[in-house]
Specification:
Elements: H1 3-19, H2 66-79, H3 85-102, H4 108-120, H5 127-139, H6 143-152, H7 158-170, H8 174-186, H9 194-207, H10 210-222, H11 229-241, H12 245-254, H13 260-272, H14 276-288, H15 295-308, H16 311-323, H17 333-344, H18 348-357, H19 363-375, H20 379-390, H21 399-412, H22 415-427, H23 434-446, H24 450-459, H25 465-477, H26 481-494, H27 500-506, H28 516-529, H29 535-547, H30 551-560, H31 567-579, H32 583-593, H33 604-617, H34 620-632, H35 639-651, H36 655-664, H37 670-682, H38 686-694, H39 702-715, H40 718-730, H41 737-749, H42 753-762, H43 770-782, H44 786-798, H45 805-817, H46 821-835, H47 841-853, H48 857-865, H49 873-886, H50 889-902, H51 907-919, H52 923-936
C-alpha cells in the first residue's frame, strides 16, 4: 500500500477517535444526567448522549471562524459564575465542538487555546478531548506538546496510543514511533490492534528497516491482523520501499480481499523498484478484475509507459482516463504524469497542449512541464515558463522547481541565469534546503565561479556527504587540485562512510605527475572501500593514471579487469591517451582491443579518439583505414566521427577528402563548419575558407572567428579582418583569449601594429592570456622592434603570467630580427633555470638563426653540435641559410651534404647550395647540382604575391 493508503487508514482511526467515541466521564457536576463516574473507556458515543436543547447547541461550531469561536467561548467563560449546571454542561459540549473544529487546520496558537478551554471546563479527563488535542498539536508540528500531553494522561486506551504513534510518524520521529509501540506491548491492560500495526509498519517503511518490518509482519500473522486489507497494503508498501518487491508480491498474492489501494500499492512498488513491465502487467490484471481504476492507478500505468518508452500504451491510457472522467478534475496527478510521458517520449508539443488545457494546475504540473522542456532542449522556453510561474498568485516555485532549472544552468554554463535562480531561492526562502544549496554549489563550480561555490559551502550549517562531494568536484574540475585534496582530507576526518561519488570527485584532482603518489593512495582507499570491481571507479582510476603520465599502471589496471571490461573501459584508456598527447599508445590500445572483437566492438567514441590521434600524427593511411571501419560499422553517420574525419584529413593536407565528407554530411552542426574552415586555413587556402564562411548556416562562435581570422592573416586582407572584428565586438567575443590573440596576429601581419597594440592594451591585465602576450611579443619582433618585445616580456613576467615555449620562440625570433644577439643568448641560457621551460627544436632553430644572421657561423655550428639529441633537419637548414647569406661555401657544402641525406627531396636545400656556387663563381658545380635536381624530378613551388582587389 502506498502512502495514501496508510494515511487513509490513520485518518479513519483518528476520525473515529475524535467524532464517535467521546468519553462521558465528568466531575460531579455531570450527575444531573446520571452518567456514571466510573466510566474510563470510550464506551458511550457522543451522539448517543441526551443533549440539552439549549439554543447554543443549535449553532454548528465546526463552521465558526477562529475568531468567532474563541470570542463566543471566552464570553461564556466570563459569565460562568452566573449560570446554572445546565448551561455549564452546554458549555462543555460547545468546547468539545470547538476543539474538534481546531483539529481540522490547527496552528500552534489555536491548539494552545483549545488546550486552555479544555482545562477551564474540566475536559482534560475526557479521553476523546485529549486525543483531539494531541492530534491538533501534532498537525501543528508541535510534537513536543503532543508528547507532553500524552505523558500527563494516566489512563490511556489503544486509540490514544495510536494517535501518539501517528503523531510520531507525521513529525518524522520514526524511531520514537517504534519505541512507543514497544512500550505499548509492555503496557498491562491495553493491547494493540491492526491500526497500531499499520502505523508502525508505516514508520518502518520510512526508516527502510527491512528486519523490523519482517518482525511486524510476523506479529501481524500471529495476531490475525492480515485479514485487515489496510495492514496488508501497508506491508506491500513497506517491502517495496525496502527493495524487496518479491515479498510485496507474496503479500499481495496472499490477500483474500484486495481493494483498489492494494492494486495501487503493488503498482507503485513496481515503479519504485524500476520494474515498469511488472507494473503494467498488474494494471492489466486490475483492468480485468472488478476494481475500476482511479487517478492513482492511471498515474502508475502512465509512469510505467514513460519508463518503458511506450508512447502508444500511454496514449491508450490517456484515452481511458478521459473516458473515466479524470480530465479537467482537481485530481491532476494523472494529467501531470501524462505531461512527463509525452516529454520523455519526445512529443513535447502534446505535453504543451495538455498543460495549456489543464484547468487545475498545481506546482507539480508546472515542474513537470519545466522538466519536459529542459529534457527536449527547449531551454529558453523553460526559462520563460519559470518567469511566467513567478507571477502566479496561487502557485509559486518550490525546491523541486529550482532543482529542475539549476542543473540546466550548470550543464549549459549559464552563470547569469544561474545567479538569477539563486536570487529566486533567497527571495522565496527556499535556499535553506540542503539539496538546493548543493545544487547551487555544483552550478557555480561548473560555471567556473569557484569562489561563490566556496562561499555557499562554508555557509552550510549542517553539510552532508553530497555537499562535500560537490565542493571537492568543483575544485577538481577547475584546476584547484591542492584545495580539492585538502578538503578531501578534512572529509576523511568528519565522515566514516563514503560513496562512489566521493571517489569520482577527488580523482580528477590528480591531473599531473606531481599528484601521482596521491592518486595511488586514492587507489588503495578505493580498494579498501570495496569499489575495486566497480567499472566506473576503475575507468576513473585509469584516466587518473593517464593524466599523471603513468601509462604502464593504466594498462596494467585495464588488463586486470579485461575479462569484465566494457567498451567504456577501453574508451577511457584510448581517450585518455589521445587527450594527453600519447597518440601512438592510443593506437596500440585499439589494436589490443581488436584482438577479441566478439566481446568488445568500437563505438563512435572509440573512432572519434582514434581518428583524432591519426590527425595529430598526420597518419593519413591509418586515418583512411579508420574511415573504412566507420563505413563498415555504420558509424560514419555519427556527426562526431564526421567532424573528426574532416579535421584529420585537414591536418594531413587532404582538403578535398575533408570537403567531400563535409558536403555529403546531412546532419552538419556548427562544429562541422568550424572543422572545414580550419582545414582550409591550416592548408593556406584562406580564399576557400572565406568563401565557406560566407555560406555558414549557423551563428559563428569563437572557434569560427579564430579560423576565419587566420585566413584573413594569410591573405593579408585587412578589410575583411576589420569586418570580422566588428562581428567580434557585436557578439561580445573580444574577451576570449584566443580571439584576442588572433586579432593581434591579423593586425600585426597586415601592417597595423598600432591597432594591435591598442587591442592588447584595451584588455584588462588579469584577463590577458599567454596567447595574447605571445602574439604581441611576436608582433613587435615581426616589425623589428626587439627592445619593446623584451620590455613586454618582462611586463608579462611581472604580471604573474608564466612564459611558455611559444613565448620564448617569439622572444628569440624578435631578438634575431633586430640583431639583439647577446640578449637572445642570455634568454636562451636562462629558459630552463629561471622559467622552467625546456628547449625544443623550435628554440634551437631560433638560436641558430640568431647567431647566423649576426655572422657568428662557427658559434652556430658548435651550438648544433652540443645539442644533446640528434638535431632536426630544420636546425641545419637555418645554418645553411646563414651560410648562403654570408657566402661561407665551405661550411655550406658540409651542412648541405648532411641535409641531402636527411631530406633528399627538399628542393630548398639544393637551391641554397646552388646559389652559393653561383655567388662564388663556381658555375660548373651549380649546373651539376641543378641537373641532379632535374634527375630527381624536384620542382620549386612558384612564388606569388597577393593584393586585395575587392575580393568578395
Amino acid at each position: 500500500m502506498g502512502g495514501w493508503g496508510v494515511n487513509a487508514k490513520i485518518r479513519e482511526a483518528a476520525k473515529r477517535t475524535s467524532t464517535n467515541t467521546f468519553l462521558t466521564q465528568r466531575s460531579s457536576s455531570l450527575s444531573l444526567y446520571q452518567i456514571p463516574h466510573r466510566t474510563t473507556h470510550h464506551s458511550l458515543l457522543y451522539n448517543d448522549l441526551q443533549k440539552p436543547t439549549h439554543p447554543l447547541l443549535l449553532i454548528k461550531p465546526f463552521f465558526y471562524s477562529f475568531s468567532s469561536c474563541s470570542s463566543s467561548a471566552f464570553q461564556l467563560f466570563n459569565e460562568m459564575p452566573h449560570r446554572g449546571r445546565e448551561l455549564e454542561l452546554t458549555l462543555f459540549y460547545h468546547v468539545i465542538g470547538l476543539i474538534k473544529s481546531f483539529t481540522a487546520r490547527p496552528t500552534s496558537v489555536t491548539s494552545r487555546i483549545a488546550h486552555c478551554l479544555a482545562f477551564k471546563v474540566g475536559a482534560l479527563a475526557h479521553l476523546p478531548t485529549c486525543t483531539s488535542l494531541l492530534i491538533a498539536y501534532s498537525r501543528a508540528a508541535d510534537f513536543s506538546s503532543s508528547s507532553a500531553l500524552f505523558d500527563e494522561i494516566v489512563y490511556r486506551d489503544v486509540i490514544l496510543w495510536n494517535a501518539m504513534i501517528t503523531a510520531s510518524v507525521e513529525n518524522q520521529c520514526f524511531e520514537v514511533a517504534v519505541n512507543l509501540f514497544l512500550e505499548l506491548m509492555r503496557e498491562e491492560g491495553v493491547g494493540f490492534d491492526s491500526t497500531t500495526l499499520l502505523i508502525v509498519v508505516s514508520a518502518s517503511s520510512h526508516m527502510g528497516d527491512l528486519t523490523q518490518g519482517r518482525v511486524l509482519h510476523g506479529i501481524s500473522f500471529k495476531t490475525g491482523g492480515l485479514s485487515d486489507s489496510f495492514l496488508c497494503n501497508a506491508l506491500i508498501d513497506m517491502y517495496a520501499k525496502c527493495g524487496e518487491l518479491s515479498l510485496s508480491e507474496c503479500v499481495f498474492e496472499g490477500m483474500e480481499c484486495r481493494d483498489l489501494i492494494s492494486w495501487n500499492s503493488i503498482m507503485r512498488g513496481c515503479a519504485y523498484n524500476n520494474y515498469p513491465e511488472k507494473g503494467f502487467r498488474y494494471f492489466k490484471k486490475m483492468a480485468y478484475s472488478s476494481e475500476v481504476a482511479d487517478d492513482v492507478s492511471l498515474t502508475c500505468a502512465v509512469s510505467a509507459s514513460a519508463l518503458l518508452g511506450k508512447l502508444s500504451f500511454g496514449q491508450a491510457i490517456h484515452g481511458w482516463g478521459i473516458k473515466l472522467g479524470y480530465k479537467d478534475t482537481s485530481h491532476n496527478s494523472f494529467e501531470n504524469s501524462l505531461i512527463t510521458l509525452y516529454s520523455q517520449c519526445g512529443d513535447i508539443e502534446a505535453a504543451e497542449i495538455l498543460f495549456k488545457e489543464m484547468k487545475y494546475k498545481d506546482v507539480i504540473s508546472w515542474n513537470a512541464m519545466l522538466e519536459g522542456l529542459a529534457l527536449n532542449q527547449r531551454i529558453w522556453e523553460a526559462f520563460d515558463l519559470l518567469h511566467e510561474m513567478q507571477f502566479l498568485g496561487c502557485i509559486q516555485p518550490d525546491s523541486v522547481t529550482v532543482l529542475t532549472i539549476i542543473p540546466l544552468c550548470a550543464e549549459l554554463m549559464f552563470l547569469r541565469e544561474g545567479r538569477a535562480v539563486h536570487g529566486l531561492t533567497v527571495r522565496r526562502e527556499i535556499g535553506s534546503h540542503l539539496s538546493v544549496t548543493n545544487s547551487l554549489i555544483d552550478m557555480y563550480s561548473k560555471c567556473k565561479d569557484v569562489k561563490m561555490a566556496e562561499q555557499l559551502f562554508k555557509a552550510i550549517p549542517g553539510r552532508d556527504l553530497v555537499s562535500w562531494n560537490a565542493m571537492i568536484s568543483g575544485y577538481s574540475q577547475n584546476g584547484h587540485s591542492r584545495e580539492a585534496q585538502y578538503l578531501f582530507k578534512q572529509l576523511l576526518q568528519s565522515y566514516s562512510q563514503f560513496s562512489l561519488s566521493t571517489l569520482l570527485a577527488i580523482l580528477p584532482s590528480c591531473d599531473s605527475s606531481e599528484f601521482l603518489q596521491f592518486g595511488k593512495s586514492i587507489h588503495c582507499w578505493q580498494t579498501k572501500l570495496g569499489f575495486a570491481n566497480n567499472t566506473l571507479a576503475v575507468n576513473s582510476l585509469m584516466l587518473m593514471y593517464v593524466n599523471c603520465g603513468d601509462l604502464l599502471a593504466c594498462f596494467s589496471l585495464l588488463q586486470t579487469v579485461s575479462a569484465a571490461a566494457d567498451i567504456d573501459s577501453w574508451n577511457t584508456a584510448i581517450a585518455g591517451c589521445t587527450q594527453n598527447g600519447h597518440f601512438w599508445e592510443a593506437l596500440k590500445a585499439f589494436n589490443i582491443m581488436r584482438e577479441d572483437p566478439i566481446i568488445v566492438s568500437p563505438d563512435s567514441v572509440t573512432l572519434f579518439n582514434l581518428i583524432s590521434a591519426c590527425g595529430n600524427l598526420e597518419l593519413v593511411f591509418e586515418g583512411g583505414t579508420l574511415h573504412g571501419l566507420a563505413l563498415k560499422t555504420s558509424l560514419e553517420s555519427d556527426i562526431r566521427v564526421q567532424n573528426a574525419l574532416i579535421t584529420m584529413y585537414g591536418r594531413c593536407g587532404e582538403t578535398e577528402n575533408a570537403r567531400t565528407i563535409f558536403r555529403l554530411s546531412c546532419s552538419r552542426n556548427l562544429y562541422s563548419w568550424n572543422c572545414m574552415i580550419s582545414a582550409f586555413s591550416q592548408n593556406k587556402d584562406g580564399r576557400k575558407a572565406l568563401e565557406l564562411f560566407r555560406h555558414i548556416e549557423f551563428e559563428p562562435n569563437e572557434i569560427t572567428i579564430v579560423g576565419i581570422l587566420s585566413a584573413c592573416t594569410q591573405l593579408g586582407l585587412l578589410r575583411h579582418g576589420k569586418q570580422i572584428h566588428s562581428h567580434v565586438i557585436r557578439f561580445g567575443f573580444q574577451g576570449n583569449s584566443f580571439v584576442s590573440a588572433a586579432l593581434l596576429d591579423m593586425y600585426s601581419n597586415c601592417g597595423r601594429l598600432d591597432t594591435a597594440v591598442q587591442i592588447f592594451r584595451s584588455s584588462p591585465e588579469p584577463e590577458r592570456s599567454v596567447a595574447a602576450w605571445n602574439s604581441m611579443i611576436s608582433a613587435f619582433g615581426f616589425h623589428s622592434n626587439g627592445r619593446k618585445a623584451i620590455e613586454l616580456f618582462h611586463e608579462m613576467w611581472e604580471s604573474g603570467t608564466r612564459p611558455t615555449k611559444s613565448t620564448f620562440i617569439s622572444l628569440l625570433s624578435a631578438c634575431s630580427h633586430t640583431g639583439l644577439v647577446n640578449e637572445g643568448v642570455r634568454y636562451y641560457n636562462n629558459m630552463l633555470e629561471l622559467f622552467d621551460v625546456e628547449a625544443e627544436t623550435e628554440h634551437h632553430v631560433c638560436m641558430v638563426d640568431l647567431l647566423g644572421r649576426a655572422g657568428r657561423l662557427d658559434e652556430a655550428y658548435e651550438f648544433i653540435r652540443q645539442i644533446p639529441t640528434r638535431p632536426e633537419p630544420g636546425v641545419w637548414g637555418a645554418l645553411l641559410s646563414a651560410c648562403n647569406y654570408h657566402g661561407d661555401l665551405k661550411m655550406g657544402r658540409e651542412v648541405a651534404e648532411l641535409l641531402f641525406e636527411q631530406e633528399p627531396d627538399n628542393i630548398g636545400y639544393y637551391i641554397s647550395l646552388s646559389n652559393m656556387y653561383v655567388a662564388a663563381g663556381r658555375w660548373k658545380d651549380a649546373v651539376e647540382l641543378r641537373r641532379m635536381v632535374e634527375d630527381k624530378g624536384l620542382k620549386k613551388p612558384a612564388a606569388y604575391s597577393l593584393i586585395d582587389v575587392g575580393m568578395g
